[in-house]
Design a protein that fits this description.
single chain; about 130 residues; alpha+beta; about 20% strand
Length: about 130
């Protein structure tokens, strides 16, 4: 019995409608929190149009929610889908670093300079617990 090549291609294809699940942890309506949300929204509209879901979590209202994603600073962006889990701390103003941190753009030699503040720091799930990342 022959396999249907069409079904094989569908099985191995990356879904074109893959939805990115993003959580932005903030502490109230501070200027950094507002800037982080605005910067994230702009990046998503430019690079993930219609393929993302943002959940904003205010830790002043729900501090217990910080434990689940091991949040140690705010604002922090957590990408839970697609895997692997990624975190970026800061106001997300450095678009290039956010794109690299979310794996929306590959790292190049020009991306190698160290961040000047928290805006470009990110870590992957693999780095947690091994001294890497934040």
């Amino acid at each position: 019995m022959k396999a249907n090549p069409e079904s094989k291609n569908r099985k191995n294809a990356i879904p074109s409608e893959e939805v990115w699940e993003l959580r932005l942890y903030v502490a109230g309506h501070t200027p950094k929190s507002i800037a982080a949300f605005a910067n994230l929204k702009k990046i998503c509209e430019e690079h993930l149009k219609g393929k993302y879901h943002i959940e904003v979590i205010d830790l002043l209202k729900n501090p217990q929610l910080a434990k689940g994603d091991q949040i140690v600073a705010v604002p922090t962006l957590v990408r839970s889908l697609p895997p692997p889990l990624k975190k970026i701390i800061g106001d997300l103003s450095n678009t290039l670093r956010v794109l690299v941190g979310l794996d929306l753009r590959p790292v190049t030699n020009n991306d190698a300079r160290a961040p000047t503040s928290y805006e470009g720091r990110h870590e992957t799930e693999e780095a947690q617990g091994f001294g890497g990342g934040i």
